[in-house]
Protein: LysR family transcriptional regulator
Amino acid sequence: MIVEILKVYVTVVEQSNFSRAAELLNLSQPSVSQHIRNLENEFGVKLMHRSPHHVKTTEAGDILYKRAKQILSTYEAAKEEIHLLRDEVTGSLKIGASFTIGEYILPHLLAEFVLQYPHVDIQAKIANTDEIAQAVRANELGIGLVEGNVEYRDILITPPFMEDEMVLVAPRNHPLSLQKMIEPGVLQDQVWVFRENGSGTRAFSDQFIGELGLCIKRSFIFNSNQGVKEAVVAGLGLALLSRWVIRTELESGELCSISVKGQRFARYFSILLDPKSSDTMAVKMFIQKLRQFKM
Structure:
């Protein structure tokens, strides 16, 4: 079926690599290459420039990619409508989530969702907030779940679905760990542990430090919540992390939470939608489940 061939083509373009595309599609690399050659023979043009490590589309390839995405979207919509005649929710769901949501909330949410809708094919990606937003913009993801602010006009941003409590944490042997409440000025010239730029957690930390006009003595940067958490446990410095991330360590006493006078640490989790796929039944049911979800 031409739909399957177009799926192969779109996957190769999005992965920029034949081997990764073959792995995702559970096909052999020669089979993927043959599908691309068949398409080039059918259209009579070269669709891709190939190198050992990279694939780049030609002008004709760009046109086919754009139209192939439209065809696949139309096909999925038709399949959903037909299955709805039998009261089934089907189709595919490509979900992206920032690290806090993806590591601590999404697995539990998906476990409930697939139990109710077993015929929906789900792919999940975890990255920082900025990477998820970019993937939604590029039509690589149908839905993104992120923390922090996202400012793009070409994607839909729905009202927040959950409030997230942020916690200022310190190692248990840190001088501030013995104090229940501190004045903001005490945080001057401290050592901090941060997430990387593009992370919602990093954006929240930067905003807090900027609003209080804090000077940083030294900082360490990690590209995962786990890395930040372990660095604080090891005694490297202070950090602002979601309570989801450090619940176990707070209960065990490995980390200590610190309250700052006059400060409330909270942010919101938001839903980003690709306008082209936001009206599919799978997306609608997922959002409904998301807004009802409790842990």
Q: What stands out?
A: The chain has a mean pLDDT of 89. The first strand starts at residue 48 and ends at 50. The domain at 1-88 is CATH 1.10.10.10 (Arc Repressor Mutant, subunit A).
